[in-house]
TrEMBL record:
InterPro entries: NAD(P)-bd_dom_sf, Polysac_CapD-like, Polysaccharide_Synthase-Rel
Keywords: Membrane, Transmembrane, Transmembrane helix
Similarity comment text for this entry: Belongs to the polysaccharide synthase family.
Transmembrane portions of the chain: 45-65, 77-98, 110-130, 136-159
Pfam families xref list: CoA_binding_3 (PF13727), Polysacc_synt_2 (PF02719)
Domain Polysaccharide biosynthesis protein CapD-like: from-to ranges: 317-600
Protein name (database record): NDP-sugar epimerase, includes UDP-GlcNAc-inverting 4,6-dehydratase FlaA1 and capsular polysaccharide biosynthesis protein EpsC
């Protein structure tokens, strides 16, 4: 559409002084068939039309004010008509009445008309005063002013009415239901109506639970019922598209609405939630598909902005695993608090390059030094070199192997990355006097039944041991599954749906805790501000979610039924649990030390045992290595809570 837009721009635009916005809008209309003539032809037609309107207004005004009399001579009328005609064209040019795209006229265009007409009539009045007996004709000029506005405005706005009601677009509109008849819903409805040529959505009805809005109309669009009436309204009015326009939805409200929408075959979209709507303005372009993340029904975390800013601002921050799902999001969140420098550490060059380019593009003028560093946490010398070179104040250690079945098959790699890698980075932090070290851990570290969980629990033990004898504040943050992260079920389910199914779920009763990537990352940063050393912070993950329910929701949100995309149960894989735990059996659920953050402390484990397995793990078989890891984990008395420590 835009590759040859110059072909539709008025020729005189390129001679200089052209208004690009006006010319561009005009060009778009020409290209889409709204205008059927050249710019000069259109200008000539408008001037001719205005000339007829002005002359007609003068004669009608004279007849209305002085019917059947000859009080006013024809000479006076002609002088007024000529003067008004000249002034009209002058002020129409000044107020750009000939350059506006009237198919999209609104209040701004009406104001321009009133201004142009008012100055035109004032000019004609002065001429009449100088040339004739003004006392005789002044009433006619007042009526002329009113008729002038009515005729000029009517001639312009009639085109908008014709466009809205009678001109058919080149594409079919989708009948659209808007959920929410508040300010956001009204704004979306108006934009969809005004941009009918650019969008395929045609708003035909609202639903809203507010009783005072029932059977009312917004922009001639009726409120047809309540949220629970969505299936009926969709069926009766042949709705193809639903837009949820309530930015302040909380908890299970969105899920309730989506459940009603899922009883239909309509596609569902929504405006961003209020915490994501930073501009304060709702636009059609901001519409997004409803994602599984939106259905968690969790209240947004209220961060202690002052504490985080004091903790991060003007500091050097290092993130390992910076190219991964959690690591990259930690980088994004940290950047919002203006560190002086951020060190992006990772062994995958493409993932580090990607987050580096993203941050540089978004924070180009922020004055933050962004340093991409390629390095493997298993390389002890490299970690010490990086720490010595940049001397960060804060380290977020997110680098880890997290895929349960893969680590069952490759336990030696899990030990090297999750245990030895953590030990390398942590001891480098201790050696160079880093202020705070935050380990990103997992709920699978509690009563682990798999290699991945066991290695993450031992990684926690490593930093807890260092915390006892180091000036560095070592802490771990433990949380459950993160929606949308690499290796999580969501990308897998989406791929299976795109391939036509089936969607594979291990067991109909399997549950997991879920949290969005941004929320988890924000809480990791917040937990760092609370660290005193040796804690294991546990994030409140809300209620566990059945994996099969997650799959069903994703299938429906993708526009399919379970008949079209079946769910297939594959059985539990080695190392998997039916449900995950965030706290051990001996945990006493204390009050949160911060919103959604709890803290506990485990008993010490002989570090010689841990060092022993790190030195000899390569001699173990796969099965023996897993047994040895489990033996270390279950040596400790798991999880004795110490509030606020």
């Amino acid at each position: 559409m835009f590759t040859k837009i110059h072909e539709y721009l008025p020729a005189d635009y390129f001679l200089g002084g052209g208004n690009l916005q006006v010319a561009y809008s005009t060009a778009i209309e020409r290209q889409e068939g709204v205008l059927f003539m050249g710019y000069k032809s259109r200008l000539g037609l408008l001037m001719l039309l205005d000339s007829v309107i002005v002359t007609t207004a003068i004669f009608i005004a004279s007849w209305v004010v002085y019917p059947y009399t000859d009080v006013v001579s024809m000479d006076a009328i002609i002088i007024s008509a000529v003067a008004l005609l000249i002034f009209h064209h002058v002020f129409a040019y000044i107020f750009k009445l000939y350059n506006k795209v009237w198919a999209y006229a609104s209040v701004g265009e009406l104001i321009a008309i009133v201004q142009a007409v008012t100055f035109s009539v004032l000019g004609a009045t002065i001429v009449q005063y100088l040339a004739n007996d003004f006392s005789i004709y002044r009433r006619a000029l007042l009526v002329t002013w009113m008729l002038h506005i009515i005729f000029i405005g009517g001639s312009r706005f009639v085109w908008r009415v014709v466009r809205d009601r009678y001109i058919k677009d080149n594409h079919e509109h989708k009948r659209t239901l808007i959920v929410g008849a508040g300010a956001a819903g009204a704004m979306i409805a108006r934009q969809l109506r005004d941009q009918s040529k650019e969008t395929e959505l045609q708003p035909v009805a609202f639903v809203d639970d507010d009783l005072t809005k029932q059977r009312m109309q917004l922009y001639n669009i009726p409120v047809q019922g309540k949220v629970r009436d969505i299936p009926e309204v969709v069926g009766d009015m042949h709705i193809e598209h639903i837009v949820i326009a309530i930015p302040s939805l909380r908890n299970g409200q969105l899920k309730k609405i989506v459940d009603f929408c899922n009883q239909t075959n309509a596609k569902v979209q929504m405006i961003p939630k209020i915490e994501d709507l930073m501009t304060g303005k709702v636009t059609v372009s901001s519409l997004k598909n409803v994602e599984v993340e939106d259905l968690l029904g969790r209240e947004p975390v209220q961060l202690d902005i002052r504490a985080i800013s004091k903790y991060v601002s003007e500091q050097t921050v290092m993130v390992t695993g910076a190219g991964g799902s959690i690591g990259s999001e930690i980088c994004r969140q940290v950047m919002k608090f203006s560190p002086s420098k951020i060190i992006l550490v990772g062994h995958g060059e493409f993932s580090i390059y990607t987050i580096d380019m993203e941050l540089r593009g978004k924070y180009r003028d922020a004055g933050i030094e962004i340093v991409p560093v390629i390095g493997d946490v298993q390389d002890r010398d490299r970690m010490f070199e990086i720490m010595e070179t940049y001397k960060p104040r804060i380290v977020y250690h997110a680098a880890a192997h997290k895929h349960v079945p893969l680590m069952e098959q490759n336990p030696h790699e899990a030990v090297k990355n999750n245990i030895i890698g953590t030990k390398n980075v942590a001891e480098a932090a201790d050696t160079f006097g880093i202020h705070t070290f935050v380990l990103v851990s997992t709920d699978k570290a509690v009563n682990p039944t798999n290699v991945m969980g066991a290695t993450k629990r031992i990684a926690e033990m490593v930093i807890q041991d260092l915390a006892v004898r180091s000036k560095t504040k070592f802490t771990a943050v433990r949380f459950g599954n993160v929606l949308g992260s690499r290796g999580s079920v969501i990308p897998l389910f989406k791929k299976q749906i795109a391939n036509g199914g089936p969607v594979t779920v291990t067991d109909p009763e399997m549950t997991r805790y879920f949290m969005t990537i941004p929320e988890a990352s924000r809480l990791v940063i917040q937990a760092g501000t609370l660290a005193k050393g040796g804690e294991i912070f546990v994030l409140d993950m809300g209620e566990p979610v059945k994996i099969v329910d997650l799959a069903k929701n994703l299938i429906k949100l993708s526009g399919y039924t379970e008949a079209e995309i079946p769910i297939q149960f594959s059985g539990i894989r080695p190392g998997e649990k039916m449900y995950e735990e965030l706290l051990g059996e001996d945990e006493v659920h204390s009050e949160a030390v911060y919103e959604k953050i709890y803290v506990g402390k485990t008993s010490a484990v002989d570090q010689d045992v841990i060092r022993g397995i790190m030195n000899t793990f390569e001699n173990y078989t796969r099965k023996d290595l897993k047994d040895a890891l489990m033996q270390i984990v279950y040596m400790e008395h798991d999880y004795v809570t110490v509030k606020g420590s």
